[in-house]
Design goal:
Blueprint lengths: L1 E2 L2 E2 L16 H13 L5 H18 L3 H9 L3 H7 L15 H15 L6 H20 L4 H9 L4 H8 L4 H19 L2
Antiparallel strand pairs: 1-2
Helix pairs in contact: 1-2, 5-6, 6-9, 7-8
Length: 187
């Protein structure tokens, strides 16, 4: 509903219509599979399924959000579908992204002798831009950002932080890099 140019979220009342609700049992089963795998024993699955069913009911997950969750393969991907169910995966802001990129860039420049080659330098600079875009637009989890910022900047420390990057986030960043690199190769 719109009122004087302002979007108003309608929670109750005669003009309010909630989107069709998700089947929270199916949502819970999907999320339990992400957390435990498909072969967990029923007694191990039951409390996890119950936890996610309650969270789904509380969050009023819609059918569209459930369809997104069905495609998610990890908690970060699920958090992108229904952020209110995964507040611990939230990205509080993108203000840390510039510092993360600066630290990564410094570490790479200290390690990479090939950056004296102009074409490699162009590739490297583009990679750093893409990494910053990913940090800002893909909403890197705060825990990952804190890890990089607190690291000593050595390759081993940065690799340890990289292990905290969810696979779906790695794939999203790789798609960005691939697309950018294809643009570099065009005349």
């Amino acid at each position: 509903m719109k009122l004087a140019g302002v979007v108003v979220i309608c929670l109750v009342g005669p003009g309010c219509r909630r989107p069709p609700p998700a089947d929270c049992s199916a949502v819970a089963d999907q999320l339990a599979s992400i957390e435990l795998g498909n072969y967990a024993e029923p007694e191990a699955r039951a409390p996890i399924v119950a936890k996610y069913k309650a969270a789904c009911d509380t969050a009023l997950v819609s059918q569209d959000e459930a369809a997104c969750l069905d495609k998610a393969r990890d908690r970060w991907g699920a958090g992108q579908c229904v952020p209110r169910m995964f507040p611990e995966l939230a990205s509080s802001s993108s203000s840390d992204c510039a510092g993360i990129i600066a630290k990564t860039k410094t570490m790479m420049e200290n390690q990479a002798t090939y950056l004296s080659d102009p074409s490699m330098k162009k590739w490297f600079d583009l990679s750093m831009q893409i990494m910053q875009q990913s940090c800002e637009q893909d909403h890197w989890p705060d825990a990952l950002k804190r890890c990089v910022l607190a690291s000593d900047g050595t390759p081993a420390a940065m690799q340890a932080c990289n292990q905290q990057m969810p696979p779906a986030l790695q794939q999203a960043m790789q798609r960005r890099l691939t697309k950018a690199m294809q643009g570099l190769q065009r005349p």
